[in-house]
Amino acid sequence: QDGVLAFAEGMGRGGPDGEPATLDTLFRWGGLTRVLTAATLLKVIDESKHPLVAPLPGVLPSATPASLAGLSLHHLLTDTAGLFDDEATLCAAPDLATVAARTAAGPRAAPAGAVYLPSRNGYAVAGAVLEAHAGQPFEEVVRRRLLRPAGMVSATFDPQRHR
User: Fold this and answer.
1) Beta carbons within 10 angstroms of residue 81's beta carbon
2) Which of 56, 64, 110, 122 has CB atoms 3.0–4.6 Å from 82's, for a disulfide?
3) H-type helices in the chain, by residue range?
């Protein structure tokens, strides 16, 4: 309040055993990764003046499979890309570029823009776009462009590095 921290306390439960949360409790990103991906990507798009509705093959590196044709960042961020939510692809891939390539090579659940279909794979493709545009790993781009400016200096994607 008036530039001074007025209240800080851990709320709820955290950790593997559900112990009470403290100010130092680390929580998994989970669904928040979608928000961080979208916010960072929109910030980069705004700064670069790149149209959100531009076709995806023009945004990703030239190795982008043709099956992403007809998709835009708008489709990815609004879950209207018609991409399956494929946990096996997400867990088995070593990086976002591989997830993007495997997702693009796979079947589509629906045509782009036809239906709302939440897809973590779509957000992984959006993360790959962010990496390609920035020339840096996803975690570093989010940390540098969004988390640090917001004062979230202890936020991390790697809890082992935090300790």
Assistant:
1) 32
2) 110
3) 32-48, 73-77, 87-92, 96-105, 120-134, 138-142, 159-162
pLDDT value of residue 132: 84
Average predicted confidence (pLDDT) for the chain: 82
CA dist 103 and 86 (Å) reads: 8
What is the pTM assigned to this prediction? Answer: 0.77
CA dist 66 and 113 (Å) reads 17
| Cα angle 53-54-56, degrees, rounded to a multiple of 5 | 110
The answer for residues whose C-beta is within 8 angstroms of residue 58's C-beta and 6 or more apart is none
First to last CA, the chain: 30
Phi and psi at 61, nearest 5°, equal -55, 165
- DSSP 8-state symbol, 158: -
**What three-state secondary structure class fits 71?**
coil
